[in-house]
Every structure is written in structure tokens, then in C-alpha cells.
Design a protein that fits this description.
The structure is a single chain. By secondary structure, this protein is α/β, with parallel strands linked by helices. The protein is about 35% helix and about 20% strand. Helix 2 packs across helix 7.
Length: about 220
């Protein structure tokens, strides 16, 4: 086994590690959540990652987005993620897609992956991604942050949980801003469920919602 991954054994079995090394993961969004998600996937050593984001970095991203530095302002988020990936773990195959997910392209972009990670910042795109995952037969690990609060859930293919949680007409606003610590925690919780699914373990968040209140350190797991 490669020295790089030896310290993962114990938490993971060698069989789980070998399974993980054959998986391809789609990351929708390379901002506050996406940067942390990509970093964790690289250090876990999955076979391949597709990073998708049509946006560029702006000064307002500097407060919370791991990939954002003054040097990359104005540059593509997806392409910056790919450059970072080459520095962290060149063994992982990384494909950068500097485009936004749409109803027209989502299914074709998600096809061929084993799992999708949602790091999107709007509910319309999240619902589009969920529909495409259903069509491709893959699960999606969803994360959302606002202020001190995070929300994480695991959607099996075709699960209508998002529509029940947030109908498009009642989508939440982002007026509370976002903190780096909230993004980092949310992404860490997403990755823990992603690793379980990729290794063949069940996820306790399947079809459920974990709410995290970092201000009061209150965590609730809800079954709808």
C-alpha cells in the first residue's frame, strides 16, 4: 500500500480502501463547501473527481472559500480547483468543468460517476442536480450553510426529500452570510457520509436531515 494512505487504514479496512480507490465523484460547486470537499477527496485518494463550477473567484469569497486567495481573483473556480488538486495529490484524476449545471447538461455531466456531492449555493441548481442523479442512478450527499447553521442529507436516487424540505417557491435566502468554520464543518460531515457510501457502508443520514447549529452547538437528526 502507498505510504500516502497508510494512516487511513484502521478507520478504513484495506478492502474499503481498495474500493475507494476505484470510485469517481462529481462535485457540484467549488466555492465555500466545494473547496473543502475536494480537499478531503484528494487526501482520501479516490480514483477520480469531476469539479463543476461556472463561476470565478471574487473578493467576497476570501472570507470562507478554501481555494480563494488574492492571487486567483477573477479566475475560474473549477480550473483553480484542478490546479490545487495537482499539488495535493497528482495520483487523483481531476476533470475541471468551468460551466454551470443546467437542466440541459446535468445528466450528461453526472453520468459515469459513483456519487455526487452537492456544494451548490442555490436551490434551483440543487433540484436540477438531484433530478440528474436520479436519472443516473447515483446518490447525492447534500450540504447547505447559512450563517452559523448547516444542513446535511443523503439522497438516494429519486428520493423527493429536497422537494418536501424546500419547494422552489419557498427557497431560503442567503441574507445571513456564511462563515468559513460553518463551511468546513458542513463539508466534513458530507465527506464522512460520502466515504461510507463509497466504501459500501450504510449512511445514517439516508433520507434524513441533520441540522447543525454551531452557535449553540445543537445537532438534530430529523426523519421526515
Amino acid at each position: 500500500m502507498e505510504t500516502r494512505y497508510k494512516n487511513s487504514i484502521g478507520a478504513l479496512t484495506e478492502q474499503e480502501y481498495r474500493r475507494l480507490r476505484e470510485k469517481r465523484v462529481f462535485v457540484a460547486g467549488c466555492g465555500g463547501l466545494g473547496g473543502y470537499l475536494i480537499e478531503h477527496l484528494l487526501r482520501l485518494g479516490v480514483k477520480g473527481i469531476t469539479v463543476c463550477d461556472g463561476d470565478v473567484f471574487e473578493p467576497s469569497n476570501l472570507n470562507r472559500q478554501l481555494l480563494c486567495t488574492p492571487e486567483v481573483l477573477g479566475r475560474s473556480k473549477a480550473e483553480t480547483a484542478a490546479r490545487r488538486a495537482a499539488q495535493v495529490n497528482p495520483e487523483v484524476q481531476v476533470r475541471a468543468l468551468p460551466v454551470f449545471l443546467t437542466a440541459e447538461n446535468a445528466q450528461s455531466l453526472l453520468a459515469g460517476h459513483d456519487l455526487a456531492l452537492d456544494a451548490l449555493d442555490n436551490w434551483d441548481s440543487r433540484l436540477i442536480s438531484a433530478d440528474a442523479c436520479a436519472a443516473c442512478g447515483i446518490s447525492m450527499v447534500c450540504g447547505a450553510v447559512q450563517g452559523w447553521y448547516a444542513q446535511i442529507t443523503v439522497l438516494p436516487p429519486g428520493d423527493p426529500l429536497l422537494e418536501r424540505l424546500y419547494p422552489q417557491k419557498a427557497a431560503p435566502s442567503s441574507s445571513q452570510g456564511s462563515l468559513s468554520c460553518t463551511c468546513a464543518l458542513c463539508a466534513a460531515l458530507q465527506i464522512t457520509e460520502a466515504v461510507k457510501l463509497l466504501c459500501g457502508r450504510p449512511s445514517p443520514l439516508t433520507g434524513k436531515v441533520l441540522y447543525a447549529d454551531l452557535l449553540r452547538q445543537d445537532y438534530q437528526l430529523l426523519t421526515l
